[in-house]
Specification:
Layout (H helix, E strand, L loop, with lengths): L3 E7 L3 H13 L5 E4 L7 H9 L4 E2 L4 H4 L7 H10 L2 H10 L4 E3 L4 E4 L4 H15 L2 E3 L4 E5 L8 E5 L2 E10 L5 H9 L4 E7 L1 E4 L12 E9 L5 E8 L3 E3 L1 H9 L1 H6 L3 E7 L5 H14 L15 H11 L12 H12 L1 E6 L1 E3 L5 E6 L4 E2 L4 E2 L5 E3 L13 H19 L1
Parallel strand pairs: 1-2, 1-9, 2-6, 9-21
Antiparallel strand pairs: 3-5, 4-5, 7-8, 8-9, 10-18, 11-14, 11-17, 12-13, 12-15, 13-14, 15-16, 19-20
Helix pairs in contact: 1-6, 1-13, 2-6, 4-13, 10-12, 11-12
């Protein structure tokens, strides 16, 4: 283990590697080491996007891009002006990795393999002379005792001195505790990007069924989201639910994940649903209601919603009673479900919380009160909805921190 280095990076994830590569390429003379407490590096990169790695998102305008960040929106505008998704695409292209854009704007390597991104980062780090040390836990961190002195790290019981230190340790409570002991304000972490646990007869056995456009609101709050909704073994997931989980991370935590949601399954305004139902009476009067669903609602889900209303399976549109029509209208536009808990979204555990953003100089991703200390990625109180946005924040923060560490 090196006893004296120029830059020590704590955490071998996306932000840590990007910062290390950026700094080492900008100043090849630097002695730079990444300390990773786990057995492997870049694990979140490896598992993200179902093993495909959602590298970034095709939103190239920083003023639009920041709207996908429940926490960090204001602070990320300047950094995104300097390094945005277009720069990420160019960075990987220059190193032999081409990206593709899917219909929803998410971007993946053309190989559809996260290993392509992992290999690229490992190769770039090796070429730049970055030393990577796994199973190396930073147990203690002490700031310089005088101007010009080094930071002191205790790694697996051994002392390492570093001129600069970067924190890319993700949601590590150990690192946050060390920072708090140095007077750095930490926002307590709560989960973000999670699915809703729901037990309800209307969705039992409908695993995998989805609707493309649903409006979902949380009871007794202003939280609302629109988009695809997926029925899972545990309850609900999909972009609409994940948006709610991200924007409502703190509020839903205070409720201990016990709340109600109301779903408009059609994705249309209620008036349009009434118009459609009236049209069914006129255009398909002899057709049974059970066999003529709203266009975007799968037949099996439609049947369950009808069961909730009590409408008989042989009822035709022309025979539909006024109270039955009202019950169907309400079930389509305002289905209410009780949420009892949450589940992690796939393997992608994201938290809201970390270093208070007031502590950071976002021109350099440096901790204001502790010269020589930098931070990027999930260690900061920054998080985004799903779609490649969390990685983009990591690439941007890592790049700016790397440039700053190499040049200062």
């Amino acid at each position: 283990m090196m006893k004296q280095v120029d830059i020590a990076i704590i955490g071998g994830g996306a932000a840590g590697f990007f910062a290390a590569i950026t700094a080492a390429e900008a100043n090849p003379s630097l002695r730079l080491v990444i300390f990773e407490r786990g057995r492997d590096v870049l694990e979140k990169v490896r598992i993200s996007g179902g093993g495909r790695c959602n590298v970034t998102h095709a939103c190239y305008d920083p003023t639009e891009l920041i709207n996908f960040y429940p926490r960090g929106k204001k602070e990320l505008l300047g950094p995104f002006m300097r390094f945005a998704p277009g720069d990420t695409i160019e960075w990987f292209t220059q190193r032999g990795v081409r990206l593709k854009t899917e219909e929803d704007g998410r971007m993946f390597p053309v190989t559809d393999q996260s290993g392509t991104i992992v290999h690229c980062l490992l190769e770039a780090a090796a070429r730049a002379g970055v030393k990577v040390m796994t199973q190396s836990r930073v147990e203690h961190l002490s700031p310089p005792k005088s101007e010009g002195a080094s930071w002191r790290l205790t790694v697996n019981g051994q002392a390492v001195m570093a001129h600069k230190v970067m924190l890319a340790s993700g949601s590590s409570t150990g690192v946050w505790k060390m920072l708090a002991s140095m007077g750095v304000a930490i926002i307590d972490a709560v989960p973000s990007l999670f699915t809703f646990n729901i037990k309800d007869a209307r969705i039992q056995g409908l695993l995998g069924i989805s609707v493309p456009d649903a409006s979902v609101t949380v009871g007794d709050s202003d939280l609302a989201a629109y988009g695809p909704l997926l029925i899972t073994h545990w309850g609900f997931s999909g972009p609409a639910i994940l948006k709610l989980s991200a924007w409502g991370a703190r509020e839903l935590a205070t409720r201990n994940y016990q709340f109600t949601i109301t779903i408009n399954w059609t994705g249309s305004v209620p008036e349009a649903v009434l118009t459609w139902m009236s049209g069914q009476r006129i255009n398909a009067p002899k057709k049974t209601v059970v066999n003529s669903s709203w266009p975007t609602i799968p037949a099996r889900l439609w049947q369950r919603l009808l069961e909730k209303t009590g409408i008989p399976t042989n009822r035709t549109w022309t025979e539909l009673r006024k109270e039955e029509e009202q019950a169907l209208y309400l079930e389509l536009t305002a289905s209410t479900f009780r949420v009892n808990g949450k589940s992690t979204f796939k393997e992608e555990f994201v938290t809201a919380g970390g270093i208070d953003l007031k502590e950071i100089d976002f021109r350099r991703f440096a901790v204001r009160s502790l010269p020589g200390l930098y931070a990027a990625g999930e260690v900061l109180n920054i998080d985004a909805i799903t779609g490649g946005f969390n990685f983009q924040a990591a690439w941007t923060g890592g790049w700016l921190a790397g440039k700053a560490m190499a040049g200062e």
